[in-house]
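fyi for ur records
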Amino acid sequence: MKLYTAKIAPNPLRVEYFLKEKGIFDEVELVQVELATEAKEPGHQKRHIFGRVPVLELDDGQMLSESRAICTYIEEIYPNPNLMGKNGVERAFIEMHDRQVEFHVFFPIANWIRHSHPGLADLEIPQCPDWAASSEATARKNTAIIDVELGKKPYVAGDNFTIADITLYCALNFARLGRFKPWEEHANIAIWREKIMERPAFS
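which gave:
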């Protein structure tokens, strides 16, 4: 398999950490895509109709895009260690937590950074400062909510490490481009982050 990725993008990192947790990262060929140029060319748009990453090229040549769809596929063919739930109820609740992080933390942080960081101006034409400011406020507010929740349980979805922790880790790390380090402001996030960084996949 081949994974079309980009070094600074948080969504491909979600897949890369997922592969590392599964212990198969070295079995997948990484292909770096330049987002400002190559991603907009017809060759890559055949892989992803909107010219985005990540895209997983399967052994039969099919192209699978969108981070969670790729992770769902990987979970199906490499079920251990389990990261998305062992039965319908577990899968539903883990997806709930993962989507809450994605919609209410990951997306606001991504919009904030993409519309404010000068190094990403070629990716957002035009950048919208008002949207960046609004997204920053939402990201900070919702990160504080996540901090409260992490005071009640060791991981985002409960007692076990799951895909939801990968999503949150990638979101908060991307926030550093906005000089926002939530682990320096929120004690529970700091404790959680230390646990995550002790894992071999994140070290």
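Residues 131 and 181 are 20 Å apart (CA to CA). thats all i got for now
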